[in-house]
Amino acid sequence: MCHDALPRSAHIGRIDRVAGVQHRVFPPLLAGLLLASCSINPFADTPSAPLPLLCRSIPSLSKLTVVRKNGLPQNHMTFAFPADVTISNQIHVQNVAQALCALPMDRSHASISCPADFGIVYELTFFNKEETFPVVSFDPSGCQFVHGLVKAQWIMQSPGFWRTLGTAMGINGANNSTFRGKGPNVG
Question: How is residue 17 annotated by DSSP?
């Protein structure tokens, strides 16, 4: 255990007995120092995850495919761009990867109310000269969670992401509604 590795002088505090068991009680400042010395962050929501391979490989990325899938064709959604787009401009590809990797985590840990989900999903596949990276997918409606990078990333609070993706795809002035599409039930 971490506190056993500390010098004897660090084991300061008082000993309390609770239900016949001895417990060492540390003053708040000392407790903070002990936690810091153990590299534990008591305020962290989740343990640190290693940076995803895609995010570590941004400088080598050279190609991106963007595929739109419609899980609810009965919604009759229309778009101003094709369902399959290939991007070969290395700078644009890397910019999209950087935007994905910079997306915030959903730290609400509570019930959230999401807008209607119209069944549109985008699948992004990145390539470099040696490999194809795992698919990253997200929907532009509903909660806008991202799948395939790290747990609980989302786009909802990042309008700049849509501009970056749109620019890479040759769509000027793109925003969330550009990728959500238009349909009889969507304005």
Answer: E
Q: pLDDT at residue 3 above 70?
A: no
Tokens of 51: 């940076």
Judged by phi (left if over 0) then psi (alpha if -120 to 50, else beta), residue 51 lies in beta
Determine contact, residues 147/137, Cβ cutoff 8 Å.
yes
Does the pTM exceed 0.85? no
**Are the CB atoms for 169 and 178 separated by under 8 Å?**
no
- Beta pairing partners, 24: 15
Rounded CA-CA distance 183/144 in Å is: 19
Q: Give residue 118's pLDDT band: very low, low, confident or very high (50, 70, 90).
A: confident
CA distances in angstroms from 24 to 1, 13, 42, listed in the order given = 14, 6, 18
Which residue is listed with tokens 């305020």? 43
Measure the CA–CA gap between 149 and 137, rounded to whole angstroms: 9
Taking the C-alpha atoms of residue 53 and residue 151, their distance in angstroms, rounded to an integer, is 14
> How many residues in total does the chain contain?
187
| Structure tokens, 176 | 């969330």
Beta bridge partners of 182: 78
- For residue 160, how many C-alpha atoms fall within 13 Å in the half-sphere facing its CB? 10
Bigger pLDDT: 21 vs 139: 139
